[in-house]
Write a structure and sequence with these properties.
This protein is mostly helical. The protein has one domain (3-157): Globin-like (Orthogonal Bundle), CATH 1.10.490. The protein contains seven helices and no strands. It is globular and about 35 Å long. Mean pLDDT is 84; it is low at 146-150 and 152-159.
Length: 159
């Protein structure tokens, strides 16, 4: 991701920021139109979810020039998404909803160059989340065997 891409995304995001609430409404409406099966993943009231989306995008976009600083937060988000049963293919639907929302919010300012820049940024962030989510889903807890339990604990348990 080069400086031009970052600048395009950050500048355009600042234009959308004043209509963040409307943009969040547009995003979730479009997301559920594109894939109605995603709706049950969210609670009945999307108010908090919309705030989280806006906050996440703000932190991510403003931190693009310091990607190494935001990667841990993006990875943590990926780990949380593992618990929400998000599948890798859902990220493509989110990308489509995000790009559509930006197009609605920016109108004629949403140029092919800007679409390419947003796609690149989203791809980097989504791939980071997917990789971390995949690691989280393949890491499973294995209960200890009796040989790993201290003898004192076995005595208390009556074993």
């Amino acid at each position: 991701m080069d400086a031009q891409t970052i600048a395009l995304v950050q500048t355009s995001f600042e234009k959308v920021a004043p209509i963040a609430d409307l943009a969040a409404d547009l995003f979730y409406t479009r997301l559920f139109v594109l894939d109605p099966s995603l709706r049950p993943m969210f609670g009945a009231d999307l108010t908090e979810q919309k705030k989280k989306l806006t906050q996440l995008l703000t932190v991510a976009v403003r931190g693009l020039s310091r990607l190494d600083e935001i990667v841990p937060a993006v990875q943590a988000l990926g780990r949380r998404h593992a618990g929400y049963h998000v599948k890798p293919e859902h990220y493509a639907t989110v990308a489509a909803a995000l790009l559509w929302t930006l197009e609605q919010g920016l109108g004629a300012d949403f140029t092919p160059e800007l679409k390419t820049a947003w796609t690149e940024v989203y791809t980097v962030l989504a791939n980071t989340m997917i990789a971390t989510q995949s690691e989280a889903q393949t890491t499973t807890w294995v209960p200890p065997t009796k040989s790993h339990i201290p003898q004192a604990a076995l005595a208390v348990a009556g074993d």
